[in-house]
Design a protein that fits this description.
By secondary structure, this protein is α/β, with parallel strands linked by helices. Helices cover 46% and strands 18% of the residues.
């Protein structure tokens, strides 16, 4: 199959997936786009928003559209690491001989919904660190690989602080995207009321298999990116730092800038965006569109930013405005 045919098939698959999601989810087009991009990039996504606006429903709907194993983990203060990973249990065979057998936990799935992830203790949150980075878990010295594709879609309430534990920076950095889920507008809210208070129940069909997702992921990684466009992505990330390469707004309000994972997220997301838009090359516009979900959670703001109410998105907007596209490529 030619590259053109593969790119066309890619767009058709994405359109079919978004159409099925649209049967349940009203509005939230940017959110749906970003979750789909994270899924196809092989990354994890953290969805932040107030309760009751459809974060969990969105993840469950995506899981229904994909022919993959799905697990939901409800994070609570008393949840233990073994409740996520699994544990060794004593079993007895027919002859009465006892031995240890590993009982797999809910992390052994393709799609993990980590619901209200910040309600569990840091010890329990850390149980996901190895799985998210290595796609494997280690129990009693034995390493157990997770089946591909594997991605974590976590939800978090950004305003309720009682009974919550902030995610450690190392874990937040492992999320490819931080996606803001906002309250629907008037027309979308009316549509939600119509769909959820009537008699009809939309039927979701599975449109993609795990193998198709892996093939789409491999195709996206083959999308070429020109050297000057790639350097622009690197300069965007360096501009978030507080040293001499950072822009003025970053030096004023940022304590720590983005890690190299931010550059990886930018480029991977931009490649998928290019394919979704019918192009087989990355443009500056793709990087700019991917900048907010890729970088907002990777900027650790200082006290001055908190005191003045400056948000990460405002800093990213300034960076996009100040970092020029056409700087010559470094030799």
């Amino acid at each position: 199959m030619s590259i053109e045919d593969q790119a066309k098939k890619f767009r058709e698959n994405v359109d079919a997936l978004k159409k099925e999601i649209g049967k349940i989810i009203v509005g939230h087009e940017p959110v749906v786009n970003q979750v789909v991009i994270a899924t196809l990039a092989g990354g994890h996504a953290l969805l932040e928003g107030v309760p009751g606006i459809g974060k969990t429903l969105l993840v469950r709907t995506i899981a229904q559209c994909l022919n993959l194993k799905f697990s939901r983990i409800q994070f609570t203060p008393d949840l233990m690491p073994a409740d996520i990973i699994g544990t060794n249990i004593v079993v007895e065979d027919a002859s009465g001989r006892k031995s240890f057998q590993f009982q797999r936990g809910p992390v052994f799935a393709n799609i993990i919904l980590a619901d209200e992830i910040n309600r569990a203790t840091p010890k329990t949150q850390s149980a996901l660190l190895e799985a998210m980075q290595e796609h494997a878990v280690t129990v009693s010295g034995q390493r157990y690989p997770l089946e591909e594709p594997f991605f974590v879609l976590a939800t978090q309430n950004p305003i309720e602080m009682e009974g919550t534990y902030p995610l450690p920076e190392a874990q937040v950095d492992r999320f490819l995207f931080n996606i803001e889920v906002n309250t629907p507008g008037l027309n979308d809210l009316l549509e939600v009321i119509d769909r959820t208070t009537g008699q009809a129940t939309p039927q979701i069909r599975q449109v993609l298999t795990g193998q198709e997702i892996l093939e789409m992921r491999a195709l996206a990684r083959e999308v070429p990116i020109a050297s000057h466009v790639k350097e622009y992505a690197a300069r965007l990330v360096l501009a978030t730092h507080t040293n001499g390469q950072g822009v003025e707004v970053a030096r004023k309000y940022v304590r720590y800038g983005s890690s190299p994972r931010g550059a990886q997220a930018l480029v991977l997301a931009a490649k998928i965006l290019a394919l979704m838009k019918g192009r087989y090359n990355v443009a500056f516009a793709d990087l700019k569109e991917a900048a907010y979900p890729s970088l907002r959670h990777r900027l650790i703001l200082n006290f001055e930013a908190e005191a003045e109410g400056v948000k990460a998105d405002a800093i990213i907007a300034k960076i996009l405005d100040q970092v020029a596209e056409g700087v010559p490529v470094t030799k």
